[in-house]
Queue: 4 jobs
Job 1
Amino acid sequence: MKHLEQAGKRVLVLLFVVMMFPAGMVSADMDTNSPVKILLKIKDLNTTLDAVDSFVESGPKPSAMLRGMIQGTDWIDPVRAIVLGVDMSGEKPSATLLIPYLVENEDFQATFGAQSREDYYIMSVPPGAATPISEKVEQTLVLSSATAPNNAISVEVAVGALLSESRDKIDAMVGGLEEKMAGLQGQSAPAGEVDFNEIADGLIATFGQLKSMTFGVDISSDELNFATETAAEDQTDLSRLFSEAGNTSRFNHYTPKGHLTYKTRSFDMDTMMGLIVSAFGKAYDAMGFNVTELSRIAFNFTGEAAGSVSYDTESMKIEGIHVLKKDAEANDFVEKVYLPWIDNYGNALAGIYKDNSDTDPGEVFTRLPDIAIDGIKVYGMKLRIIAGAAPNDGQSAGKPVMTEAVFYVTTIGDMVLTAPSQNRMAELITIAKSTTVQPDSGPLVVYEMDMDGYFEYMRQMIPDSGAVFANMPPLGKLVSTMNVGGGRAFTSTRMRTDFIKQMIAMAGQQNSGPVPDESPEPVTPRPKPESAKPAAASRPAEPAVKDANYWIDKGNLVSTYGNDISAVRFYAEALKKDPMNSSAYFNMGVSYGELEEFDKALDAINRAIELNPANSNYYYARGRVYLMAGNTAKADNDFRTAVEMGNTDAKAYLERTEK
């Protein structure tokens, strides 16, 4: 394994470990002193579920199972938020759920083992977890529930505090994952090649400037909106980047053409590139990419720009107008700065690829003859970009897959123009000459993606894609915006829901075809609880007499949703009513097995067999407990006994495992 692949994979492990701690976006106003560092909030669950259900125009609704599981939503307070908080301060993360209610729902409380307060339920997650809920955690959730989120669903994380508190865990995880990766590769990392502590320091120092973030989703009948809000710590580079931006634009009348288009006002380019180098410079260095060299060219620009990128089956098309800083030498910029940079950088990338793949990608950068348009010197060039490696077909495996970009570059005043053809360059020159600086109160950044055009390109690139791309419904545009102000950054990405509806309908039609004849991997299914009843969407009336069957049904219900601790308690109530009830013993044994209390599980199932030795399910269940406990000989004996008695589950299991 060559240096790039070794270092690259290990660096990606580090990036994953550091980034997984603030994963999900952070709340811009979280109490960073609370032990809860991650909050999931749901506003008006019923309305949100109705919106999700609207995506499916026919057939079962996606929310049906959830509504049944929680026994409807009419009892939940729609004004206050449902809140899930994650406390990362212990050895393992612990999660706590708060659900505000209008009226008590005793069935929900019993099913999930929730604790009832004055007007809300609170419980550990997963249900039945014996994790104590601290007063500070509960207070945080109560206050958070009372503050309705801006979005239907939001995830809030205190990034800086979380990274600070988790540094020891990050270091341990990085070390552990790197050792495992080195073991999988059959070798250790070359000494001195990569300083992972240095890389981690850069990442944490940069992302530690984040005070908080919020990631939100709004769902309506016609649009999905994904939004983020990020707050930086005061007096930091990130805070300055999120506070300073230009308020004018000269591109209000320039409409770029392409699959992906962008427009930006000016911003603090120096600070942004400094943060990128600080966060990712060492990581990219370890992979062989000099991000500092990239920043050197970026420092010449103000950030104000407009342009596009498009693809076809043979090439990539790039166009744009980018504004230079006043101190940049615009007249000589292309010849003295841009061309040497792109030549050196392109050939450096080619050398890295050659060193690490034993394959020569050929010449990456080629100058084309210079031309003149309207008396203006225009520089032509061709850049061959490595798009990936060929599949392992025995002949071309590992060889680079290249895509070509021919483009022309020139300057008009303080603007650098890039175009994919001479004709388009002539049009851009005319546009650039007519630009005027105007006030602009719109978003700092606007990205638009022509989804229809992009998927048409994908269809052409993958001829065997069949109906996947050929039958795509109209997708429209994916529009993303970004704004900054007051030390905060705001983003929004919108897409049409009618596209999602059509995709779901198309997937449903494809899934209705013949089922492929493929056997699943051998598994040992959990025996079905006897007399199990599905949860109802509305709460049934309480029976006049709570006999053994009533408590068995209660136990079966909560065990279906994973709360085996409460299930055992309900089965014990059933045995108080009927001490000779084999079904109660059987189901109690199954739940003890799920809790990995195998001795208690075997005692209960043995008692069930004593009371009803003719029930094959009991032998199958005991075999399953033996299997989980590691006694394969006794497990196999019980499975075969169950088969002799006609048990189809045991027969199916043995047939799969004996293939």
Job 2
Amino acid sequence: FIKTVMGDTSDNIPAIFPKCGYVTAKKCYENPEFYQKKKTEDSEKMFERNNQIINFDCIPEKLCEEFKTMLFSQ
């Protein structure tokens, strides 16, 4: 959650809120009311986008299988 909210500048993934770093992202995680107050329609869309990029659980199964096949065939 924290990584999704704060983004990753090294991978060109923007934060979902302006000037949102680790402290703000952690506060959003620990305080759902704070997160709800900051959240907008745009930030919710950015959260979903960031989550798809950052969260390993969102990697398509087909790609995982292709990677495993390639890795173990060498």
Job 3
Amino acid sequence: MGRNMIRNRFELEGSVLDETHLNGTIQVLTSHESVRGFTPEEVPPAALEAILTSARSAPTSSNLQAYSIIVVRDADRKSRISALSGHQGFIQEAPVMLVFCADIHRLKYVTQRQGYDFKADTLEMFLLSSVDAALAMQNALVAAEALGYGAVPVGSVRNHPEELALELGLPEGMFAVVGLAVGREREGVRRGVKPRLPRSVTVHEERYSAAALDEGLEAYDEQMISRRSYDGRRVSIAGEPEKEGSDYGWCEHTARRCTRPETIAASSSLRENLREVLMRRGFSLR
């Protein structure tokens, strides 16, 4: 199954891996598919601990470990998180919702505990702590899938960051970067792995090159159109004519979404004041 998924995902490139490198870890990574429907079955404590331990084993810049993970199992709290995150039902369905937070609160506490002035509330520190949180989330996702669970990252936890901070008891210096819903997948929720842009578009040797960009984009467009990937998902733009199915591929869909950023994140308008929110949350961004 793993080889078929790789073939489907990287169809434009033919065979991308030889048998000697197709081990269990590579199969889990290349077979990833977001799952947005879960059964009520609980994630046992031992399995959850394996997922969390994997998350905590992710790389971390300068060993600062500038992130925290909030484990949410309570049904009422998941319901409130769902309401703050675009009313996505799978958040309530999932037996476990993990929220990965950028955390400089702990660093500030340690600095002041040692008798020093904390001066690391910078833009760089926000990026650093957000990357730490994202790396931990990815490790958790891979671990969950390796154990046979379904999972999906949840960026919409950023829709109402201050309200979510209150719900989760986050002190100043913490910001919810991304969530991860985990559980046994409900039957029929998988739609198949999504093809990726060609290697020539996203991977560059030594220096960036756009030499193969147009050719790669055109090939990817043809692939996505042939799969009817955007049936029922087209983005309308006022004053712009609708495109025929044969003309509506990844490029057209992506360009229209970037013209209307609210279609990238359903509530992106709620994030327009993100800088101000972060500053109120204790990140000066200087």
Job 4
Amino acid sequence: YGYCENCGVKIDKERLEEVPYVRYCVDCQEKIELEEKVAKLEKEEMTLSSVPPAYDESTQDIIEGEDEGETEVEARIGKGVTEESEEEEGEEVAEDEEEVEEEEIQTSDIEEEEGISESLRKKIEQEVEEELTQIEGKKEEEEYYQEEEEEKIEGKRRGRKKRETALKEEKAKKKRKTGKKKEKGDKKEKTEKKSDSKKKRK
């Protein structure tokens, strides 16, 4: 869509806006319409020539006289017609050359646009790749710091548990020592009571 089906040239934006589904550029459209008109005229001429005219002898003489007059006129102006034809052919050649040059310019413009588009696409891909690399690097850095932080927290927890365990063991030892002292004190007290009771009996 947007390119001529005949010559492949990009169709003007204004033409596409006027006729959204146009298939040919302006030059090709004119050529096709001209070819269709010529073909139609040739067909009509062939149809007319296939029907023989009904003329009598007098009419035939008039026609022959007209033909002779036309032949003389054609002979006189033949030279001028030839010159005009040559001029027309020269103009057509010049127009064809201009069209070829215009098509070449349009083709070079399209190739240049495609080249710019390709370089722009590569630049965008490179920028996206760099951004992704930076994102990955930041992500890895964050993960590293997160792991390091988790290790610190885990180390603190272990240290706290060790301290708590040590405190519990120390308390248990104190309790055991206190219990032993109490037992010794109770035994000593019992011994003293027994000795006192023996003295009283005496």
